[in-house]
Design goal:
There is one protein chain. The longest helix has 19 residues, at about 155-170. A 5-stranded mixed β-sheet has the order 6-5-7-8-9. A two-stranded antiparallel ribbon has the order 1-2. It has a two-stranded antiparallel sheet with strand order 3-4. The chain folds into 2 domains: about 1-60, Orthogonal Bundle (Helicase, Ruva Protein, domain 3), CATH 1.10.8.420; about 70-210, Dna Topoisomerase Vi A Subunit, Chain: A, domain 2, CATH 3.40.1360.10. Helix 4 links the parallel strand 5 (about 85-90) and strand 6. It has 7 helices and 9 strands; from the N terminus they run E-E-H-H-H-E-E-E-H-E-H-E-H-E-H-E. The protein is an alpha/beta fold. It has helices at about 15-20, 30-40, 45-60, 95-105, 130-140, 155-170, 200-205; strands spanning about 1-5, 10, 60-65, 70, 85-90, 110-115, 145-150, 180, 210. The protein is elongated, with a radius of gyration of 21 Å.
Length: about 210
């Protein structure tokens, strides 16, 4: 510790790093201390490259203009991949859910991140989410199936119902409405995709069911 300008004790840079890391999901003060100690001991091999990577992400990270994923370009790597199936769009709540599905390796279509779920208590309606952008993507044509891969929570399923209704209106307007499916077995009630193992996610994708 060292004195600050007011005569008190100012936290060292290392203590400040520990404090900031301890605020991250999954890390508490004890885990943060172990992580910082490891990084300091290997500053050339790990700490310096990590600091550079963090600085680059802080400067360049942004949402993808098409799907809402987080990347360092206007169009994320997934949307820019020509090997993806443009006819299938998988709708998820958050970017973490998208990454969980990618980690499972069972899906090769496109994505659409809503940015949350509907919540009357929090004042979150369809316009606050990326529901209109999804409808616009489907209305433009070429999408034959929309997979609603929303978390198996009350708010998640309410959101799925509203999204399905919004997509159903495309047919009422004379357009071609897509087939709408949802994840099936393997996802427990109340389960969140980001916390499920890869095998469970793959099974839920493979056994998805059509929403009537």
């Amino acid at each position: 510790m060292r004195p600050d300008q007011n005569g008190g004790q100012a936290a060292s840079e290392i203590e400040e790093l520990i404090k900031r890391l301890s605020r991250l999901p999954g890390l508490g003060p004890r885990s943060a201390r172990r992580a910082v100690l490891h990084l300091v001991r290997r500053r050339e091999q790990e700490l310096a490259p990590l600091a550079q990577a963090l600085a680059e992400v802080a400067l360049k990270a942004r949402p993808c203009d098409s799907c809402g994923n987080v990347d360092t370009a206007e169009t994320c790597a997934i949307c820019a991949d020509p090997g993806r199936d443009d006819r299938v769009v998988c709708v998820v709540e958050e970017v973490g859910d998208l990454w969980a599905l990618e980690r499972a390796g069972a899906y090769r279509g496109r994505y659409h991140v809503l940015g949350g779920v509907l919540s009357a208590l929090d004042g979150v309606g369809p316009e606050e989410l990326r529901v209109p952008q999804l409808v616009a993507r489907v209305r433009d044509g070429g999408v034959g199936e929309v997979i609603l891969a929303l978390n198996a929570t009350v708010d998640g399923q309410t959101t799925a119902h509203v999204v399905a209704e919004a997509l159903g209106e495309i047919a009422a307007e004379g357009g071609q409405a897509p087939r709408i499916t949802a994840l099936a077995r393997g996802v427990p009630h109340g389960g969140e995709l980001d916390y499920l193992d890869d095998g469970t996610i793959g099974a839920a994708l493979g056994a998805r069911r059509e929403i009537s």
